[in-house]
Amino acid sequence: MLALITGASSGIGLMYARELASQGHDLIIVSNQEKELEQVRLELGEKYNVRVWSVFKDLTSPTAAEELHDYCLQNDLEVDILINNAGVFFFNNLIDNSVRRIELMLNLHVLNTTRMTRIFGEDMANRNTYVEESVNEAGEKVLLKHIKPKKDQRPGYILNMSSMSAWMAMPGIQCYNATKAYINNFSHSVWYEMHPYGVNVLSVTPGAVDTGLYGLSMPLRRLAVAIRVSIPPEKLVKKALKSLFRGKKQCMPGLINHIAVPVLKHLPDWLVFFVINKISKFMK
Question: What are the pLDDT digits (tens) for 233-261?
Fold first, then answer.
């Protein structure tokens, strides 16, 4: 199968690329880090003997999804696995962020994820349909689209990276958690729509992941992993892909996260202010 992974030059996206390549899947890797992307292409192709196409692309562009789809059509590439992983994170009060920075996050997390799911999801669904000619009551010939039986379907997979913060009302990450909540609800809804077509849509909602995304110092990152507040990206990726290929619609790695979510919804205001003050001291 062929997998398209966004944000594949570093962090979680790179782990998805490595894991899928190790399973024998060909890859289309996408990122706005051109030099790093080429290094990943060469590394994975040589190490795992798979075909790897690299596409240097700014995914915050309104036309990025269509351009990626056109690239696939021009190169006769049919995507079986779509990993919408690319993301950004910043920690600031809303009024301390520029409008441009906010729009960048909204475009990447909301618009691009939606467009990618819509465009590539349609391809996956269409592969599992057939058209039959019929005659209506007026005697006119019409074409009717039918879904193929399950046994004849070609599986399709879409994984969208959300976050446990989707359930949090937390100052400093107001745009981040709102966009991740969108991704989570959007993915669950599309799971129901795409399921009859043999296409699985998974929302992954991890807690903290040990990457450079959050801007924490290395000592704090090591401490977070040691006390299991944070999860190594390779562990997250293995669990997420296992859920994806099993047809699940939700993956939240870590027992502590399942316990934390109901608590996070009911935090008293004084505790929120206390936590946010502590966190802000450790952000770069």
Answer: 899 999 999 999 999 999 987 656 656 66
Q: Answer for the pair 284, 90: CB distance below 8 angstroms, yes or no.
A: no
d(CA 53, CA 29) in angstroms, rounded, equals 6
Task: Please tell me whether residue 265 adopts helix, strand or coil conformation.
Answer: coil
Domain count, the chain: 1
The DSSP bridge pattern shows strands 199-204 and 52-56 to be unpaired
Q: Which residue has 């899928």 as its token pair?
A: 20
The predicted-structure confidence for 35-60, as pLDDT tens digits, reads as follows 999 999 999 999 999 999 999 999 99
Q: Could you list the residue range(s) of the whole structural domain that residue 168 is in? A: 2-282
* Interhelix angle 34-48/11-22, nearest 10 degrees: 20
Rounding to the nearest 10 degrees, give the CA dihedral for residues 251, 254, 255, 258: -50
Alpha helices per DSSP H over 170-282 = 174-194, 218-226, 233-245, 255-264, 269-282
